[in-house]
Structures are given as structure tokens and as C-alpha cells.
Write a sequence for this structure.
């Protein structure tokens, strides 16, 4: 069996809804801390994937992940590098 730590980095392909959610969260934080600057979307690779920690994905997008949601924040496939897994 293998273990994946929630602090592990995984790769997701954000949808326009997901980018908008990140931007809205950033602007909410910025309203109380203007020094953080303007929102910049996450950097992506040539295939459109960005890297985030698993806990951050769950915290940010968890409420949007349900059966039948037509506005998912990221495509349903998550890429995880084999090096992120620990052997039990």
C-alpha cells in the first residue's frame, strides 16, 4: 500500500471557474491586506497544468466538488508524481 500526504504537490488543470474562484479568494484577502498585490493566475505547463498542495485544493475547491456540478473548478484528473507517494 502507498500513502499520499495532504501536503504533497499535485497537478491540476484549472477551468475558468477555478481561476475565477482563486481570483475572488485573493481579492477577499487583499481587501484586508492590500500589500499582497494583484492576483496572478498560477503558472501552467505546456499542457495547462498547475501545481498546488493537495490540502490547498481541498480547502479552496472542496465545496465545489459534487456530482452534477456543471462548473467544476478543475478537470477531474489529478496528476501525482510517483515520488510523492510513501511506501507503508
Amino acid at each position: 500500500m502507498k500513502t499520499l500526504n495532504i501536503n504533497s504537490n499535485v497537478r491540476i488543470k484549472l477551468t475558468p471557474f477555478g481561476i475565477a474562484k482563486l481570483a475572488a479568494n485573493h481579492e477577499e484577502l487583499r481587501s484586508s491586506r492590500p500589500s499582497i498585490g494583484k492576483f496572478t493566475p498560477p503558472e501552467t505547463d505546456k499542457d495547462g497544468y498547475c501545481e498546488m498542495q493537495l490540502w490547498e485544493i481541498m480547502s479552496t475547491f472542496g465545496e465545489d466538488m459534487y456530482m452534477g456540478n456543471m462548473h467544476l473548478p478543475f478537470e477531474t484528473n489529478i496528476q501525482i508524481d510517483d515520488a510523492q507517494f510513501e511506501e507503508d
About this structure: DSSP finds two helices and four strands in the chain. The first strand starts at residue 2 and ends at 4. The beta strands are 2-4, 9-12, 50-53, 85-87.
